[in-house]
Amino acid sequence: MSDAVLFDARDDGIAVITINRPDSFNALGRDVRDGLFAAWERFERDPGLRVAILTATGAKAFCAGGDLKEMAELKLTVPPRGMFPIPGDTIEVTKPTIAAVNGVAYAGGWLLAQACDLCVASTAARFAITEVKVGRGSPWAAPLIHMIPQRIMMEIILTGKPISAQRAYEIGLVNRLAEPDALLDTAIALAAEIVENAPLSVLAGKETVHLATEMGRTAALRAARHAWERAYRSADAQEGTRAFAEKRKPEWRGE
């Protein structure tokens, strides 16, 4: 791991991934992209880590998007398929992820927040899909239709104008708001709520949401039944009901 992206593997099963280029508004330059690819792979492979939080250093920017100077130097046209580290798209991350947005999340910064499963935002954060302002593209915004209403999505993409954290919360892009000083603690508290639950059920729950957004009702129901079968048949499923009957906290094994 380089110092462009920091990785904190906590003892409570939570990983905190921090973009650490505040001098460049945490833009997605080559060092940040490489660091994020490595960080997501490390999180996915570590069985002791259950939830990842993606945040950034500084109060001004979560991520200002792609490095436009780099793009100009490269005369970049269509970005290569694997150029950006996007969970659920260019990389596979099966475990839950939370974006803790500490400042502006523009263009690629919005993309990173959108790609995470949940989003906690500082009240000072701002969100924008600014590609129309610089003649670039935002094909990655297509899944946004499953998160916010169509006409709001249309306005955001066509105008390129920022929205406040409060507005992002109102339209359903953000799960929770927090004062700037309490942002990470709020994200960790949300992650801890997930960690308390049965690991296999959490994984199947995330997969079910993805299936529901990609399939019709009947196909999604069939696929979801299959996704949950491992959890139903697990030792944890027996432990959970037994712990409830015995009025104690369950001891999850993830199997």
From TrEMBL:
**Recorded superkingdom:** Bacteria
Record keywords? Lyase
In its keyword annotation, does this UniProt entry include Lyase? yes
Does Lyase count among this protein's keywords?
yes
TM ranges: none
Q: Which CDD domains match?
A: crotonase-like
Q: Could you tell me the Gene Ontology terms of the biological process aspect for this record?
A: fatty acid beta-oxidation
| Signal peptide coordinates | none
Gene Ontology molecular function, alphabetical: lyase activity
Belongs to which family? Answer: Belongs to the enoyl-CoA hydratase/isomerase family.
The protein's name: Enoyl-CoA hydratase/carnithine racemase
